[in-house]
Specification:
Shape: globular
Helix content: 25-40%
Largest sheet: 9 strands, mixed
CATH architecture of the largest domain: 3-Layer(aba) Sandwich
Number of domains: 2
CATH topology of the largest domain: Rossmann fold
Strand content: 15-25%
Distance between the termini: 37 Å
Structural class: alpha/beta
Oligomer: single chain
Radius of gyration: 22 Å
Length: about 425
């Protein structure tokens, strides 16, 4: 698990405000006064930050992504309680299992429940377990941070001081989505004080459903992925794969265009395609096979730059379907931070802004995708592309995203009080 090292800072709240400190160098006296006031307000908010209770459909240890980037930063200032979806198995004794990460401030909680329960019975058991947990922990001053509206079924009776819905994806469009998801999302919009979205396109779809919706597209840990610009030692399972070598990392599910990969592998038998990530919700037997396709399985977040370093071009071969209509792939800026040319299918939040700015090549058919990869190969040493990419990436980071979210939360909390 990645450790975000903020502990060495003299003041965690001051570290949070580094971005505001930098911006203040370019402001007038009046503007500097406003920045100083914002710093004090946010510092005060973080100093007395309520506990964060997150309800998520994602396993904490599955893939290190948006929730982990944001919530580990909150855990530097308060306790984080991260509730995963329950696990069901025969003979289970109904209980909550708690494990900790990051020195104890991150608490991962999962309900263990017996098979055979109706949805109502499952909800009733979870409500009972939650009530006991909140009472034992004296959790009476907390912020709810939701990733799934389904959690309302077991939490709507609880009284947070603030409710945030981080609408990362259009979950109702995913394979196997519960029928009640859309109805519960409507309820979530009624309960939430703030709604953050994982990209611009999903923001445009949700902005009229709540008065406080804000777009926070995918961001990066630039220093982490910048390691890929170095000549790093090859991992053993990638070292023997010939070049040219083109890679993808992420979850391989219904969003992944397996037919595009199949067509590319046939069209260019001398090219080698590296696929990193767990296979979920699709049959592994349906994946294209061949001597030039290499499935290396899941890797942890720390390892990704090492694999990325050995690729010639990075790929975003997403299918164009309902499940990808609103996605904003975090991999896009991560690949670029690693210094790699990128080829993507025409995902809206990749076309805007990366394709329109000429930072990423866009193609959808195997023939066009292969031609775009050839352009990417030629682009690797292009100084103009490198300079424009660097300029774009200089304005985004998970620190900046989190700080802006905290500012909005502080404002909303102050208005409620």
């Amino acid at each position: 698990m990645l450790k975000i090292d903020l502990d060495s800072a003299a003041s965690k709240a001051d570290l949070t405000m580094n971005r505001l400190n930098q911006e203040s160098l370019f402001l007038s006296n009046d503007e500097n006064a406003a920045v100083a006031a914002d710093k004090k307000n946010i510092n005060d908010f973080l100093t007395d930050l309520p506990d964060i209770v997150c309800m998520s459909h994602l396993r904490w240890d599955f893939v290190f992504q948006r929730p982990q980037h944001l919530l580990t930063r909150f855990a530097q200032h308060s306790n984080l309680y991260y509730f995963e979806e329950p696990m069901f198995y025969d003979g289970a004794e109904s209980r909550l299992d708690l494990t900790t990460r990051e020195g104890g401030n991150i608490n991962i909680i999962v309900a263990h429940l017996p098979n055979g329960l109706t949805p109502q019975e499952s909800d009733e058991l979870q409500i009972k377990l939650l009530n006991q947990f909140f009472a034992e922990r004296n959790l009476n001053r907390f912020i709810f941070w939701y990733y799934t509206p389904m959690a309302l079924e077991i939490t709507r009776h609880l009284k947070p001081v603030l409710t945030v819905f981080d609408c990362m994806d259009e979950l109702s469009a995913f394979k196997g989505a519960p029928p009640r998801l859309r109805e519960l999302e409507t309820e979530m919009f009624q309960k939430a004080d703030l709604v953050f979205t994982g990209g611009q396109s999903i923001y445009e779809a949700k902005k009229d459903q709540h008065p406080e919706v804000y777009a926070f597209p995918s961001s990066i840990d630039k220093a982490h992925f910048g390691q890929a610009r170095q000549d790093l030692p090859e991992p053993a399972d990638q070292a023997a794969i010939p070049h040219p070598r083109f890679g993808f990392y992420g979850v391989v599910d219904e969003r992944f265009d397996i037919e595009l990969l199949r067509g590319l592998a046939v069209l260019r038998p001398g090219w080698h395609f590296v696929i990193i990530g767990p296979v979920v919700k699709i049959n592994p037997a349906d994946l294209p096979q061949g001597g030039n396709i290499h499935y290396l399985g899941g890797k942890n977040y720390k390892e990704l730059p090492v694999y990325l370093s050995g690729w010639d071009v990075a790929l975003l071969p997403f299918a164009l379907n309902e499940s990808t209509k609103y996605i904003s792939p975090t991999k896009t800026p991560e690949y670029l931070a690693g210094g790699k040319p990128v080829v993507s299918t025409s995902i809206t939040d990749v076309v805007r802004p990366y394709g329109e700015l000429g930072l990423v090549h866009i193609a959808d058919t195997p023939e066009d995708f292969a031609a775009a990869i050839e352009k990417g190969l030629a682009q690797r040493e292009d100084p103009d592309w490198k300079a424009r990419t660097e300029a774009f990436l200089s304005g985004i980071s998970w620190d900046i995203t989190w700080q802006k979210m905290v500012g909005l939360m502080q404002d909303s909390f102050a208005e409620k009080k």
